[in-house]
What does this fold into?
Amino acid sequence: MSDIDELRNKMEQVTLEMIKLLNTRNEIAKEIGQVKKNLGKRVTDEVREENLRTKVISLCDEIDLDTSIGTKFLNFLLNESVKIQTPMDQTHLTIFLKAKSLEEHGKKIIHMEVGEPDFLPPIQVKNALEKVYDKGFIRYGDAKGLSQFRSALAKKNSETFDVKTVQENILVSPGARFSVYLAISTLLNPGDEIIIIEPAWPAYKDCAFNAGVKVRVIKTTLESKWEPNINQIEEAITPHTKMIVLNYPNNPTGKILPLNVQDEIIELAIKNDLYVLSDEIYSQYSYKEWKSVLSYNYKKSIVTQSFSKSHSMTGFRIGYAIAIAEIINKMSELQALCLTNVSEPIQFVALEALDADISNNANIIKSRLELLTREAKEIGLDFVEPDGSMYLFAKVPKDEFDSGRFANSLLEYGLAVAPGEGFGDYKDFIRLSACRDEKELMDGISILRRYLKE
Ligand code: PMP
It folds into this structure.
């Protein structure tokens, strides 16, 4: 046998051994997952992970292996265990889908789980839908979006946020969700780390897992008014950390960060050369001073925006990302691969909608939130009053409260709410959405009041 064949055989042996060991590790992870479930423990134990990381680093030193490779491999293994151990949490989406299916069977449900405004899109949308066929926006197009639309978006952003954006900074995507997916999938590599401040919209974490990226959660609390602790963020940063996600006004808490806290986070990101993915789709719904991440002019920031909430156009699936051209180009390559381009007719419709006056939408949601706030106080829920967005994230003061079970049984009474566990380690919370008219919200609250008493 030649030398190369012998070496290849050895390599094959080692690889197969590694696969067997991975299988053994996964079996153990499964067992640990069961024990954690029985004890009611969280899946991720940061302290244990850190201990293991320290051991891996010293082993790398001892055997002369590049620590960066060793710790990346560790991140891969940790993610595998998290995937194995993560129970299928109930999220606003699972409850929404169950509610929809019950409705199909004739049950009446009040939707307080979903972030979908009940008002119609602006009239410009109807007119544009009528015009688009004759206008000829019916073909394949640039993966980044229609040039007229991108430049109109750039202009709008320049005016609104007092920053210079040009069309090269814009990528049109089917909803902000896809922009989030593109940013995480193209800018990060397996083994990299991402910082997510919880409670959070679940897709950030899911996109990270999907891309093999290790998630570091910064847990915030009702007691600290949902403000992340800067030292905690600083401590979570490792040489593998590549991105931090911000989402203010926040889903689910309605929080807007005090400007000094936001400034500190951005400073920290700049110091550590991190991408800042700032999901700003609720900016239209800010009821106190709010500052876009765009205004820091940081070259590694990616801002996501959407027509879903601002223009009540959820079903049109249209949003966009704003970043430097280099980032936009990367994201657009994956977009081209996945879907060629966003539907041209829909881009035209959204372009026409840009001229609409949507300022009243925020007034409507604000007054509904005020109603929810009053009523939720009255029934004894515990929460911080939202500064923006369209939700109330409230703690249910009951022992051993399980938001997933609660949300499922509430469906039988005709009310859908979002369970807190879908947003992180918040089993004792529920999210109430202010997306229905006041009468319906009041009916929803009375169901909640009745059920909480039982
Ligand atoms: N980001 C956040 C914080 C959201 O709450 C949602 C939708 N609920 C999205 C993004 C997705 O929005 P889109 O409909 O534009 O994909």
